[in-house]
Amino acid sequence: MLRLEARPIPSTLMGYAAPVIALLATVVFGSILFATLGKNPVAGLTVFFITPLETVRGLTEVGLKMVPLLLCALGLALCYRSNVWNIGAEGQLVVGGIVAGGVALLASPASIPGYFLLVLLAGMAGGMAWAAITAWLRDSFNANEILVSLMLSYVGGLLLLYLVNGPWKDPKGFNFPYSKTFDAVAMVPKLVPGTRLTWGIVIAFLALVVIWIFVARSKAGFRLQVAGHAPLAARFAGFSAREGIWMSLLICGALAGLAGALEVAGPLGQLTPQFSSGYGFAAIIVAWLGRLHPGGCVFAAFVMALIYIGGELSQSRLGLPAAITGVFQGMLLLSLLTADTFIHYRLRRV
Amino acid sequence: MEQLAPLIAATLSAGTPLLLAGIGLVVNERSGVVNLGAEGMMLIAAVAGFAVGFATGSPAAGLIAGAVAGMLFSLIFSALAIGLVTNQYATGLALTLFGAGLSAFAGLSYVGKSVPFKTTFEIPLLADIPFFGAAFFKLHPMVYFALLLTAVVAWMLARTRLGLVIRAVGESPESAHAIGYSVRAIRVGAVAFGGACCGLAGVYLSLIYTPLWVEGMVAGRGWIALALTTFATWRPWRVALGAYLFGSVTMIQFALQAEGIEIASQLLSMMPYIATIVVLALISRNPAFIRLNMPASLGKPFHP
Predict the structure, then answer these.
(1) Inter-chain residue contact B102 with A330, CB threshold 8 Å
(2) Which helix (H) or strand (E) is A124 found in, with range?
(3) Cβ A284–B102 below 8 Å, yes or no?
(4) Which of B90, B80, B223 is closest to A292 using CA atoms?
(5) Does the N-terminal or the C-terminal CB of chain B have fewer CB atoms within 10 Å?
(6) Which of B34, B36, B41, B93 to probe the A interface (max A CBs under 10 A)?
(7) Would you say residue A350 lies in a domain?
(8) A-B interface: how many C-beta pairs under 8 angstroms?
(9) Residues of A in contact with B108 (CB under 8 A)
């Protein structure tokens, strides 16, 4: 019989090894899944982990997917570190995209150069406002932020559907639920000509540096983490729990909103009903896989981007539905949680 | 008055999945375990039950398959959160994400198909009563089953030894452990019951309420059911009250449309979610009130 036994001190090694073990476990489960679906596991895994990295186009697509994943995960990691269970980054991203899209639709060729910066700021404001609802209800009403932020994600998604089917629908769009395409001044410039990759990736990495410095070097960042790890100690030290709720949610909202803005004013150039592809939810996995650390989130966002692209490719290369992405995401998070147990526990024979 | 009867009937039908899931989650949470995987279990059960119902042509087989699927899926949660002491919130969330992905993947071949099952049954004699017949006695048997389940669970939790043990495990697992109860086995059982109920709720949606399979068709009802347990302060009959309240919110949109009031359907569809947020905020406003009613060890891991 094996028995779980608490470790006297948590294992640092397991902390770093767990994401790698989880990834390997997902690969093994994935191979089994491919085999049961009658596909060659090696061919299947190649499509997910090798093919996207072989061409410039593939690499730029991976970079493109990393942008929203990384931005949302940075914000979520901050929330989870402060013990605020925000799972509504998806809604914050969508509303950020909506507000950014609204500002972008106002642009004309006569608008000032650099108008796209306004669009990005609008996206951040939109995401912040949406996250502020969760913060306010948690702070003033003690309402559970998990449920509120998730309900708001549904509301945000429906708001988007309403706008692209109603007031913002392109009258010349053959009745498709899309907005008009944005004017070129409202669009984020391309980073690699001839691909879809924009300066968004640079902006995302700038955000990474800012958040990293904030978490590791600033006093406010320190207060947040104490409030998360040791609420009692934070209270005795006079750190406000309210500050933690508001700050982490507003920062997360701003980052998610920025991600939404970069998506609509980047590769898409218009508002579409499903512009997000669930990035806000996938970013939850990214944040945990990245050990709630800004640097780790980069690695994790890269892996998650591969899974996204792999899912799209598996449709054309393997004849498997793109929905397989969701299966992989779920398996990854479940494996990670399992592996994480062994940071605090070990197995003993009894 | 005459228009009211079908609205009442529709409210009861719309509230039933919330009630089924909510009752299961109450037992689940009374044992001290939060399972945020409700939405995922409902989705898995919706597709599994639809597949079985579609293949066998038997709604009963579909419903049973849904309950079994929900229960089996909950075992993943139990293995991690109870067996391996992982964080309950994160594990439940993982279950929902996995369930959403797996159900979308498994359900692809059923998209657009529908099942020809009867969705209403008239109770002889009672259905002929004016007004009351149309409002209460021309429904699917699952609507009554949900109420029966509520009664049984309310009795079980309040009046039986089993209920006492479940509550003890939820209030103070250490004490329950010390007097010789297997905390983990009881919690696994409670979670499995929650899974089966969420499964029934999910398959009710795909076989009876809608009745077809669409990706993500549970549409947040699992989360609303989780909010209901707080709203109900973990009491079965209050879950029923809340479920029908939310059912009526869903129905208001149809009532408004029938009255000829022009509001975009997307805006009307927001109402259950906004109602959940408002209700949650109002009920949680007094932290002491919530803490008084909440199982004391809710969400806290237990390792013997």
Answers:
(1) yes
(2) helix A115-141
(3) no
(4) B90
(5) N
(6) B93
(7) no
(8) 142
(9) 321, 323
pLDDT above 90 coverage of chain B, percent: 73
Domain count of the fold of chain B = 1
| Lowest mean per-residue pLDDT among A184-193, B3-12, B49-58, B238-247 | B3-12
Q: What is the 3-state secondary structure (H, E, C) of A13-78?
A: HHHHHHHHHHHHHHHHHHHHHHHHCCCCHHHHHHHHHCHHHCCHHHHHHHHHHHHHHHHHHHHHHH
| Nearest chain B residue to A138, by CA | B281
Nearest chain A residue to B228, by CA: A147
C-alpha Rg value of chain B to the nearest Å: 19
CB distance from B278 to chain A under 8 Å? Answer: no
State whether residue B276 sits within 8 Å of chain A by CB. yes
- How many C-beta atoms lie closer than 10 Å to residue B292's C-beta? 9
The reply to whether residue A345 touches residue B84, judged by beta carbons under 8 angstroms, is yes
Query: Residue B299 falls within a domain, yes or no?
Result: no
Q: Decide: B272 and B245 in contact? Cβ < 8 Å.
A: no
Whether B191 maps to a domain, the answer reads yes
CATH number of the structural domain spanning residue B219: 1.10.3470
Q: Do the Cβ atoms of B277 and A334 come within 8 Å? A: no
Residue B67 lies in a domain: yes
Q: Of the candidates B93, B100, B101, which has its C-beta nearest A87's C-beta?
A: B93
Residue A29 lies in a domain: no
A308-312, B111-115, B208-212: least confidently modelled range: B111-115
Range of the domain at B187: 4-293
Neighbours of A293 (CB within 10 A): 17
B266 touches chain A (CB under 8 A): yes
Res A225: pLDDT: 83
**A39-74 residue pLDDT tens:** 899 998 998 889 999 999 999 999 999 999 999 999
Q: Which domain holds residue A124?
A: 65-275
Q: Is residue B38 part of a domain?
A: yes
Do A337 and B90 count as a contact with CB atoms less than 8 A apart?
Answer: yes
| CB within 8 Å: A146 and B36 | yes
- C-beta atoms of B84 and A341 within 8 A: yes
For the record, the structure tokens of B128 come out as 């002929």
Among B99, B266, B281, beta carbon nearest to A158: B266
Q: Where are the alpha helices (DSSP H) in A166-230?
A: 200-217, 219-229
pLDDT digits (tens, 9 = 90+) for B130-154: 888 888 888 899 999 999 999 999 9
Kindly state whether residue A46 falls inside one of the protein's structural domains: no
Residue of A nearest to B280 (CA): A143
Note whether residue A18 is domain-resident.
Answer: no
Number of domains in chain A: 1
Closest residue in chain A to residue B282, using alpha carbons only: A141
